[in-house]
Specification:
The protein is of the alpha+beta class. The protein has three domains: 88 residues, no CATH class; 116 residues, Cupredoxins -  blue copper proteins (Immunoglobulin-like, Sandwich); 89 residues, Sandwich (Immunoglobulin-like). It has nine helices and twelve strands.
């Protein structure tokens, strides 16, 4: 099962990488530069230390007669003075290096946490739950608020404010290609900023151990050109379309008759559950179960039938759907674009 999940995740990722060494935005670029600076400096220090440690082994021993000793086998005053100067210089150099590292670290932290001056910043509210992400696009106009889950679309070149919180334990929001880590704490809202300078799919994840399925709590950030983002946003504002054929109509009725309706919301229907992800546009998402599986009909059937075998410990109820009802239900869910 673990191998299947790994292959599925790779299939979703395609060429997308989850790495801080491939920055796609200004905050991530500052962090990457800091990491490279640390790597170069500490590598140089390591080489210097090892060199000085090996030098005595490569030098020919001068012999006891060439080292004047005073009483009680003490080295000469000249030798002690020379060693004291070397130790003093090494101590001063160490202090200066540590001070420099602290300075550049604080400077990078300020650069990555400072708020962009642009007034057109997009505001996205991220709520972490064991083990999935609720995504809400805030707007002063209530009719333009968009709800999503485990997937966030952003326009290229536009700052995005992340308002993050948690409903249960401490989680951590981390999209390495776009920004550093930000802890999400229950009853507290933390602010972060991300910005993508180029289109792409960037995988994020929870970076704070939060329970059994911590490793299966991923989030995809899809950066798109502004016009494509606006098209996506307009589609997300629309309620779910009414099923047009008898099979999907039957599937909608199955959804309403079973416990699905108690946990999930589908805009435009009577389903208004607040426990699980909003499913209004489920079929348009890349994955299901917070990045655990690619979003296709087969995986969706397996998830509905036995979610505990795929993601043990998750809070998705196992719903005993009759075999003859499963196919219509899948057809209906696949129509939620």
């Amino acid at each position: 099962m673990k191998r299947v999940l790994l292959l599925s995740s790779l299939a979703v990722a395609g060429r997308a990488q989850q790495t801080a060494m491939d920055p796609a935005g200004a905050p991530a670029r500052s962090i990457a530069h800091l990491g490279l600076f640390f790597l170069a400096l500490l590598t140089a220090i390591y080489i210097v230390v090892i060199t000085f440690a090996l030098l005595p082994l490569m030098r020919r021993h001068r012999g006891i007669d060439q080292e004047p000793l005073e009483g009680n086998h003490r080295p000469s005053d000249a030798t002690e003075t020379r060693m004291a100067k070397r130790i003093g210089l090494a101590t001063v150099a160490t202090i200066l290096i540590l001070f420099g590292l602290i300075t550049v670290s604080v400077s990078t932290s300020k650069a990555t946490s400072g708020s962009p001056p642009r007034p057109d910043s997009l505001v996205v509210e991220i709520t972490a739950t064991q083990w999935w992400w609720s995504v809400r696009y805030a707007n002063n106009d209530a009719s333009r608020i968009v709800m999503a889950a485990n997937e966030m679309h952003i326009p290229v070149g536009r700052p995005v404010m992340i308002r993050g919180t948690s409903t249960d334990v401490i989680h951590s929001f981390w999209v390495p290609n776009l920004q550093g880590k930000r802890d999400l704490i229950p009853s507290r809202t933390n602010i972060d900023w991300i910005q993508a300078d180029r289109p792409g799919r960037y995988r994020g994840q929870c970076a704070e151990f939060c329970g059994l399925q911590h490793a299966h709590m991923a989030l995809w950030v899809v950066a798109e050109p502004p016009d494509r983002f606006e098209e996506w946003y307009s589609r997300q504002l629309q309620p779910a379309a009414d099923p047009a054929d008898p099979v999907r109509q039957r599937g909608q009725q199955v959804f309403m008759d079973y416990a699905c309706v108690l946990c999930h919301t589908i805009q435009g229907t009577q389903a208004a559950g607040q426990v699980g992800p909003d499913l209004t546009h489920l079929a348009s998402r890349l994955t299901i179960a917070a990045g655990t599986l690619p979003n296709n009909k087969g995986n969706l059937a397996g998830w509905i039938t036995d979610p505990q075998s795929i993601k043990p410990g998750n809070h998705m109820a196992t719903v005993p759907i009759r075999p003859e009802d499963m196919q219509p239900l899948l057809e209906y869910l696949e129509s939620l674009q």
